[in-house]
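Re: beginner question about structure tokens

> Can someone show what the tokenized structure looks like for a real chain? I only ever see the sequence side.

Sure, here's an example I had lying around. Input first:
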Amino acid sequence: MALGIWERCMHKNEIRFNHKTRKDMEIKEHRLVGVSYRNTPNKGGTIKPNFIIMHYDGASNATSAIDWLTDVKSKVSAHLHISRDGIITQLAPFNIKCWHAGISFWGSRSDLNNCSIGIELQNTGKEFYTEKQINTAIEVCSLIIALYPIEEILGHSDIAPGRKEDPGIQFPWEKFKLLLKGGYNGIT
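And the corresponding structure tokens:
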């Protein structure tokens, strides 16, 4: 399955992905170009991401989820939110620590907030993901993988077993396994 054409630009922090549904989606200065940006206060420190952690937001609509992720009282955040319509809202640059993983571990690593990019997908946890949403998530993950040394794409349930169940059994892992050479080793 061809996802698109990659272009490596002159600057180290620029990669462009040309796809038939989204022209020139790119990451510049650790941010997606051309998407809505709403700064979350729930972040801090610089990271070098090695993992992408997939979540569902548990909300009935994107607005309430984004409001929660940008509310200082919530003490939670993520780098991106993707609505059921495939609309991306970035909440923090990819090199900034967000508070999405909580108490977490994978292999010998703990506190995965220190080394991961969190992506929230609009879903109550009982719904199937939409095609637009999944295609957008695949495009975004592909861009991230091309720019950062990502080892694995994991679910919140993988890094916080017994405590979290997202992105849930409806999440199409088979579509994301192909993005990394080593495949997916998670339990979701």
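Each token stands for a local structural state, so reading them left to right follows the chain. Confidence is low (pLDDT under 50) at residues 1-21.
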